[in-house]
Design brief:
The structure is a single chain. By secondary structure, the protein is mainly β. Helices cover 0% and strands 55% of the residues. The strands form two sheets. Strands 2, 4, 5, 6, 9, 10 and 11 form a seven-stranded mixed sheet that branches. Strand 7 and strand 8 form a beta hairpin.
Amino acid sequence: QVQLVESGGGLVQAGGSLRLSCVVSGLTFSGYDMGWFRQAPGKDREFVAAISSGLWQNYEVFAKGRFTISRDNVKNTVYLQMNSLKAEDTAVYYCNAAQLNTGVGYWGQGTQVTVSS
């Protein structure tokens, strides 16, 4: 059974930092591209950042320079370090595991991030 379990969300003041973690089990972690997405109330889910199995990173424009994605293939964990947080970063953040060549993908349950202004 594949499981993606996010943690690290919470309430933080604008300008602060949070580090999200996503622990993955039930699949060969090193063979998957990993990503973070977010969904704010009343909005569609949107891409935040991704890191490939080969450690290539990609960021949405709003995340560049503030967020850093990383992965630990020993701990089967992907991280999202978020700095200089803004009120508009408030959302539920979701972890995603994907294999683009097979179309297989999995989602975590999400972790709430709330940034007070």
